[in-house]
Structures are given as C-alpha cells and as structure tokens.
Amino acid sequence: MSIPGLNYTRKGNVGHHAGYYNIVHSNAARLVYYFFESRERGDDPVVLWLTRGPGCSSELAIFYENGPFKFADDMSLVWNNHGWYKVSNIIYIDQQLLLLYITRNKT
C-alpha cells in the first residue's frame, strides 16, 4: 500500500477502502466514504461516523480524532495508537452536500 507521506508498516490485518456512494434521485451526486476494518477482525461492531456542523468534515476525524492515522509534528502520517480501528470496524461518511466531493455525469 502506498499513501503519500506515510511510512507504512501494516499493523496486523487492518484493511481499508474508500469510495463514493451514489445518492438516489440526485442527478448522479455521490457521497465520499472511508472504511477501516478492525485490527482484530472478529465480531467487533461497525461504527458509522457522521461529523456534522458548518465547516466540519468526517475526514477530520480520521486524522485528528479517532481514525487510524494522525499527523506528526513534521506533517507526516503516523499510526494513531488510540484509534477506534483497534476495537471496531469504522465507516466515515461526509454527509453535508456543501462539503461533499460531488461528481456529476456530464450529459
């Protein structure tokens, strides 16, 4: 795996996926989501993280709150030893239309 700025050493079997979720009846608008598997991959719960508020993005939680990575002082990415990915599968979704990465099919 290659993430710019991250000296990546896999910790256990942490899997991840990111992509878009199509919004029904929205002329092809899509929500951005990020999914991180639990380190244990057992019967850990699934947490759905939705940050809400003006100027807030769920992506901020990935790097500044409970996600698997955080920024070091030199702005490189390092593992967050207190991330919720250790005890749960976690999905981060940006749900505010003004803050979403929205793509549209050009017709």
From TrEMBL:
Gene Ontology molecular function: serine-type carboxypeptidase activity
PANTHER family in alphabetical order: SERINE CARBOXYPEPTIDASE-LIKE 49 (PTHR11802:SF446), SERINE PROTEASE FAMILY S10 SERINE CARBOXYPEPTIDASE (PTHR11802)
Cross-referenced Pfam families: Peptidase_S10
Record-given protein name: Uncharacterized protein
Family the UniProt entry places it in: Belongs to the peptidase S10 family.
InterPro entries for the chain: AB_hydrolase_fold (IPR029058), Peptidase_S10 (IPR001563)
GO terms (BP aspect): proteolysis
